Amino acid sequence: MFESAADNSSILSIDLGLLIGLLVLQRLLDPLLTRDRILFGLTTGSLLIMYALWRWHDTLPTFAFSVQNFWQYFFFAFEALAIVYTLMSIVILFRSIDRSGQADDAQKKMEREGDFPPVDIFICTYDEPLEILERSILTALALDYPDATVWVLDDTRRGWLREYCAEAGARYITRADNKDAKAGNLNNGLALTAAQTNAPVILVLDADFAPRRDFLKRTVGLLLNPDVAVVQTPQFYYNPDPIQHNLLAAQSWVDDQRFFFDIFQPAKDAWGCAFCVGTSFIVRRDRLNEIGGFPSQAISEDINLTYTMLARGYETWWLNEKLSIGLSAEGIPEYITQRARWCLGTIQVALLRDGPLFGSGFTLTQRWHYLHGVLNWLCKPFMVLLLVAPPIYWFAGIPAFEADYLSFLRYGMPALLGQIIYMAWISRSRTLPLFMEATHAVTAFTISATLLSAVVKPFGRPFKITDKGGDRSAPRVHWKLASVFGLISLSSAASVVWAFVSPYAISSTCSGPASRWSSRSSRSWSASSCRAARHSSRSMKRPNSHWTITSSPAMLPGCRHPVRRFSALEICRRAFPIQPLNFISMRLVGSKRKFQVVPKPSLDCDCDRHLRSVSNSWSRCSVRRPVMLLIPQV
Do residues 300 and 212 touch, judged by C-beta distance below 8 A? Predict the structure, then answer.
């Protein structure tokens, strides 16, 4: 299906031409135009699909019950999930919407008519210190809106906070227990305020978020549309996240949530599938009463709220304006805890009987958008596999997949270049290779463990809050995380050294007559096979084993070793280390015990001379399909 890679110069020329073409597209196309988003997205997607087909067709062996076979298919399964997730992301990013114009019109209408619906402001708190809480309380009290009441919902029953609220002019609510965590706290506030102010609009703020003075004027008017139940705004932070802080990148790079909030949520909103993110949003009280209050079946009450509303036909709109600012997670443990909670909450909502995957009332678009969110977390174990694959290969001789570098340059590099350039273009420089991978790698192990635990016990887990207000004045070493990544780094470095100093690095030579090639006869390959023996014996950890290829069962002079099982692609790679080998292809004939090596008819060359010219480089044979071959040697 896929042609053999030609040579270094031609492959590099193709990749260079593709790189130039992608950079030209990046320069000429406008990410704000739908047709340009579709054009660039289709280009990137086609490169990724070509890579995926090449991986499936040319790099996987025929399935068999062996450790190497299982590892390669296991690796490919998670890689395929990542590819599907990326392709779905590209489709979602075909569209985008900016509701600032609608917010302008709604604000002017309210101000012209003097009709400002009353608003109850819920500030949810759990054990945050006063220096954090007072920012939210005082800025909420200072909102430029004629009829708003600030309610502090305290889930830790602190007397000093009650006194502070009385002095500041805010109202205070608490409860006897912490049932249902944040959703329970909100529902308690919803019930108690219904008997007092009963405002038709509710603004929800986390304890560390301070709203801009015009927050309510910019958002409340959008709820006049009867189909809209929630208006969500993006989160911004006045402190760098832990990754920015540790890499000293706070002044030169954005936080890792900017692409999600600024680019991806407006795209999802264009499809009618934007979702609540837990703070800095307004919601209609009557819609909440219709669904029985804030949903509490999952620890992610925010996304559960959106999809419960969608099942009733009510939308969440995304107003992409900087209307509040809060605290990012300040330490690596808090950062990881927060992501793990989001992961578990997403899985829990997916498993609900009335949720977006199994419940009724959802459109196909809404279901596959939620599936896309689930895949976002299911892809994280692939990062773990990428980190552990090198040591596994060097120590155990088990590769994640079989391919030579020329083939990867031909099919893998275009997909990689396309994705990097497309993401930089569509995000307006909010993504950066390596930096983004670092953020994903930090949480990959914990999220993978969360996914495994969710298989056993998805529900009944405690709600873990994200601690705020930490001290960054003194550096801290998180030894548990450092030990994990330190072990991976050391094992990778040690495995490279082992490849050169192990007793299997240099094996015995194999003697035998020079090989001769014939397109019809059953003759052995000796000269090239002896060189191949050095590679294969090192990989198989058998210092005295030399593998030779023959097209039929025959006596091979100089090579007296037992039968071994190899994939055809592996045999190609190990037995023909000659330069160049462009003219060689492998054709399976008859049973799996026979094959022929034939010259490509389009090239005129002295095959016998080329086959005897041994080199240290690897080359690739074009195999129609990977199969398992038994090579008898007596």
Answer: no
The pLDDT assigned to 272 comes to 96
Alpha-carbon distance of 371 to 351, in angstroms, equals 11
Q: Which amino acid is at 177?
A: D
Token pair, residue 185, equals: 């706290």
Q: Please report the pLDDT score of residue 4 as a whole number.
A: 59
Please state the φ and ψ torsions of residue 342, each to the nearest 5 degrees.
Answer: -60, -40
Side-chain half-sphere CA neighbours of 82 within 13 A: 21
**Over residues 13-29, mean pLDDT:** 94
Rounded Cα gap, residues 507 and 542, in angstroms: 9
Q: Name the residue with higher pLDDT: 247 or 562.
A: 247
In this prediction, residue 283 carries a pLDDT of 98
Q: Can you tell me the distance from the alpha carbon of 345 to that of 559, in angstroms, rounded to the nearest whole number?
A: 60
Bridging pattern class, strands 324-325 and 119-125: unpaired
> Is the pLDDT confidence value at 512 over 50?
no
Indicate the pLDDT class of residue 565, thresholds 50, 70 and 90.
very low
Q: Which residue has the tokens 């996304």?
A: 303
Q: How far apart are CA 336 and CA 241, in angstroms?
A: 11
Write out 175-190 in H/E/C secondary structure.
CCCCCCHHHHHHHHHH
In order of their start, the domains of the chain are 8-92+379-468+476-499 (no CATH), 100-377 (3.90.550.10), 527-631 (no CATH)
Q: Kindly state the tokens that stand for 216.
A: 């309510």
Amino acid letter, residue 609: R
Which H, E and C letters describe 590-634, residue by residue? CCCCCEEEEECCCCCCCHHHHHHCECCCCCCCECCCCCEEEECCC
Q: Can you read off the two tokens belonging to residue 322? A: 């900087």
- The count of C-alpha atoms lying within 13 angstroms of the C-alpha of 202, restricted to the half-sphere facing its C-beta, is 29
* 3-state SS, one letter per residue, for 124-165: EECCCCHHHHHHHHHHHHCCCCCCEEEEEEECCCCHHHHHHH
Angle, to 10 degrees, between the axis of helix 435-456 and the axis of helix 479-501? Answer: 110
Amino acid at 422: Y
Rounded to a whole number of angstroms, the distance between the first and last alpha carbons of the chain is: 35
Task: Give exposure, 246-266, as e/b (b: 16+ Cβ within 10 Å).
Answer: beebeeebbbbbbbbbbbbbb
Q: Is-contact 337 466, C-beta < 8 A?
A: yes
- Looking at the predicted structure, is the pLDDT value of residue 459 above 60? yes
Q: How far is CA 549 from CA 64, 522, 623, in A?
A: 21, 11, 15
What's the pTM?
0.78
DSSP-based three-state secondary structure for 491: helix
Q: How many CA atoms lie within 13 A of 478 on its CB side?
A: 12
Using DSSP's 3-state secondary structure scheme, residue 407 falls into: helix
3-state helix vs strand vs coil in the chain, percent to 5: 50, 10, 40
Q: What crossing angle do the helices spanning 34-58 and 67-92 adopt, rounded to 10°?
A: 170
Q: Would you state the pLDDT for residue 470?
A: 61
Buried/exposed code over 78-116 (b: 16+ C-beta within 10 A; e: otherwise): bbebbbbbbbbbbbbbbebbebeeebeebbeebeeeeeb
Q: Can you tell me the distance from the alpha carbon of 612 to that of 577, in angstroms, rounded to the nearest whole number? A: 10
Long-range CB contacts for residues 188-193, cutoff 8 Å, separation at least 24: 188/153, 189/120, 189/122, 189/151, 189/153, 190/285, 190/288, 190/293, 190/294, 191/293, 193/120, 193/149, 193/151
Sign of the alpha-carbon torsion through 73, 78, 84, 90: negative
> Within 13 Å of residue 72, how many CA atoms lie on the same side as its CB?
22
